[in-house]
Amino acid sequence: MTAPLLAHATDHGRMYARSTSEQFSVPSITTVIGQQPHGLDGWFGYMGANSLAQDPTLPGILGSPAKVRQAVSRAAKAAETYRDDAAKRGDRVHNYCEQVALRALGRPHEMKETREALAANGEEAFAARFDEWWELFQVEPIAPEITVWNKTVGYAGTLDLVARINGRTCLIDYKTKGTSRDGTVKPLDDKVVMQLVAGMKAEESLVDPVAGEWEAWQHGESPILLAVAIGQTEVRPLRANPDVLKHHWWKFCALRRVWEMSADTTAAGAALLPLAPPPISR
């Protein structure tokens, strides 16, 4: 995904500014959702143990404590390495999807370059499956990579695509996914619904990032919210259930308060202070 011009990495997560000349002031949608516990301890442990077990140097280093420590250090970073590689792959796929929309809108694009980047990493199948889905669903793009803002709750984010499909306005979020053992794309996490409903609840959308010009959000009236899982064997679009949107919205607002309280707690200062022993009585 193209890095939004107004987004900044901070100690409190990714935050957005109103223009390129202003300081960041609200958290991103994904930063707010990130306040939810992830429960990946088991996965991190498995990735580390699996990496160590498959280390080709392991048989020859068992007699050297120093080399064993180095192997353990490499294994400890296995989950982080996997996560970073997956994020880079996701960026390449998102970039290609954005270029497809730009070309359809008749705007300057880099479709050739982004497809070549996928091919160079053995990932061109993602582009091929996406092209098939785009044609099958007759996607009519309206606005790719559009930044939105909600002043009332206090957050901002960038939507992958606003489009029209079969005459209905759709807010679309792409998720690059691996392939399961049965050859299908891996399932999506339900938290994508929070991401989509937060986009729907936007109040403004960005017009000019340099001037800080915004306009009233035009696509929040009962759009279809689509999470699109993009894999190498298939693309699977899933619609957010309209009956549960209010619950995911309330949960998002609660997580926004958690983020604010966490930031306030950090800014308040040290939680623990040193304590000297009492003076000796004489």
TrEMBL record:
| Superkingdom field | Bacteria
Put simply, this protein is called Cytochrome
